[in-house]
Structure formats: C-alpha cells, structure tokens
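Example record

The entry below shows one chain as it appears in the dataset: sequence first, then structure tokens.
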Amino acid sequence: MGECPVLVDGDEVLTQSGNILYHIAEKTGQLGGASTAEQKEIWRWVLWDNHKLSSQAGMLRFLMNFLPADKRPAEVIAFTQGRVKAAYAVLEAQLTGRDWLAGGEGVTVADLSCCSYLYYPEPFGFSRADWPHVDRWLDRIAALPGWKHPYDLMPGNPSDRA
C-alpha cells in the first residue's frame, strides 16, 4: 500500500495499524479481550480511532507543524480542530469512571490504537490538562512496562526535518 506502518512476521506482510493490532492480539492471545463482547468493543474502538481520531489528529499535526507557515490552510485547520475536539470529547466521556477504553481490567489494543497521536509534543490546539480523564489515561499507558515515547522509537525528530 506504499505506507507505514508495516509488520513483517515471517512470510506474512501486514499493513494498516488496526490489522497489525488484530494480528498481534490474535498471535499473542493478549490485549484482545477475553469474551466475544469484549472483543467487539475493542475493535469498535480501534475502528473509531482509525476513522475519527488518529486520521484527524495526524492531519492536524501535519498541517500545523510541518507545512511552512505561509502554506497552512487556516480554514482546514479550524475544521479539523473541530473534528479532533469532538473525538477528544468522546474519549473523555468514555474514560470517565474507568481506567481503559474497552477492556474491563486492563489495557487492550483499543487503548494502544487510540493513544498514538496524543503523545506527540507538537501543538495541535489541545492541552491534556483540559481533558483530565484522557490525561490520566495517557499517564496510565505511559506507566506500562516497556512503554516508549514515539520519538524514542523513531530515528530523529520529524520537526527537525520540517
């Protein structure tokens, strides 16, 4: 498909983050939910993320931080900020009174999918402090064993290449 992410697992080459997360959960038997109802809820959130949160947040981050200032489309940025704000509101509501998005007792691939763009330091119009349940959820994920900041997993900092 000419894009990242790509996972090569033996002879299998997988693209699309949701598909890769599904593969990891299936192969390891972890992070994918114990019951059919949990699995459906997890994948509902992964699909929601792919369509409502990460795609919008990624585009907004690019438009606001990596385009030259004179080429940043103010109307598109304002529209996309509205979409991201709506997605943040959905996350905030879901995380009220719970630790994880879809699973009862622990982190799932739904959490890992939905958090991805929310750790980047470049501004895109939102402060974690304005979303206290999202903020605590991101702190819980960052406290998991083996967690690494996105820029610790990539060579170089994209803002240095802008």
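Notes for this example: Residues 36-65 form the longest helix (30 residues). Strands lie at 6-9, 12-15.
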